[in-house]
Amino acid sequence: MSDSSSNLPVIPITRPTIDEETIAGVCEVLRSGWITTGPNARKFEAELSTLFGGRPVRVFNSGTATLEVALRLAGVGPGDEVITTPLSWVATSNVALTVGARPVFVDIDPVTRNIDLAAVEAAITPATKAILPVDLAGLPVDRDKLYDIANRHGLRVIEDAAQSMGSTWKGRLIGSFGDLVSFSFHPNKNLTSIEGGCLVMTEEGDAKLAEQYRLQGVVRSGVDGMDVEIAGGKFNLTDVAARVGLGQLPHLDEFTRIRRELVREYFKLLDCPEVHALGLGLPVADFEQSNWHMFQVVLPETANSPTRAQVMEKMSSEGVSTGVHYPAIHLFTLYRAAGWKDGDFPHAELAGRKILTLPLFPTMTPAEVERVVSTLIRVLKSFQ
């Protein structure tokens, strides 16, 4: 596909990397006749458990399902409050509503763009049951401070690690420690199973309960015994999807390495006086812990600055795709109806208006990074 104005190939915002061996493996699953949850899903769980140091892991059909089940495992329900960030995919807070709880937002740290842990403690009330932080773009929330707060107040932690597969905290893989850790395997993630996710737990008892929540609350016994003890959902992962995930796992470290190299190119080109003069905000330059799920900049906001939509439209006309991750959740109609309003969280609102995701994926080339950056600079200058 080419851009009509320049005849250069369009640079997508992301592109999954699926090798031929995985494609052939999917064909084998299709031919096997067993395409729903089965041996490949169980193998995927076993390999993920090994990756996370032997912790219990269950796979699901989405990262949203894993968050919902994690909240249920933590005993979160009607009357409870869950502290979370307003800068995330809306599923992060929607799942609290789904279990009957109330999401309580606190602003982000403008530097990391993750939840401001200094503001979390002030938001805790007698109704608070859990903290639900997000590793935005793969940059880990400070796990030491997070768990210090949770432990001192007797709160559960549900880590929304949807974007941080392969990220680390002080040398420890995200998911290999902590309370309940939820990952997404959506196609735009660093590891995909087409759609899907997994929940990492600490106890086998929780894993068994997660299985019940995953499939209608069903418990089987003997040859023909069946009982239903709780109201579950329909959240199981197919073997077709699991086979894609199994094919991705061996490449996770390499995907992370390549992403970090590409981000170094971004910084080399963007961290300079010319760009600083444009007022462009760059992310934290963490090349050790972040998996660089996304590379995001914050556009300038002055009287003469273009809107994000204007920048996106101009870049698209030059064959460079961009994205928005994310609008501020509390300003959606659903959450305004619950009392949230403009001005509640200034840092998240600025990011919600001005954050821009640039292309980043393992098959991207340094030349494409240079093209993205030159296009962005040219577009920003065109509005001066």
Question: What are the salient characteristics of this protein?
Answer:
seven-stranded mixed sheet; Aspartate Aminotransferase, domain 1; alpha/beta; 384 residues; single chain; Aspartate Aminotransferase, domain 2; 2 domains; globular
Summarize it.
This protein is α/β, with parallel strands linked by helices and about 375 residues long. The protein has 14 helices and 13 strands. The chain has two domains: about 20-250, Type I PLP-dependent aspartate aminotransferase-like (Major domain) (Aspartate Aminotransferase, domain 2, 3-Layer(aba) Sandwich); about 250-380, Aspartate Aminotransferase, domain 1, CATH 3.90.1150.10.
SSE layout and pairing:
Elements: H1 20-32, H2 39-51, E1 57-60, H3 63-73, E2 81-84, H4 91-98, E3 102-105, H5 117-123, E4 128-132, H6 143-153, E5 156-160, E6 168-169, E7 172-173, E8 180-184, E9 197-200, H7 204-214, E10 218-221, E11 225-228, H8 239-248, H9 252-270, H10 273-277, E12 295-298, H11 308-317, H12 333-336, H13 346-354, E13 355-358, H14 366-382
Parallel strand pairs: 2-3, 2-4, 4-5, 5-8
Antiparallel strand pairs: 1-9, 6-7, 8-9, 10-11, 12-13
Helix pairs in contact: 1-8, 2-8, 3-4, 3-7, 9-14
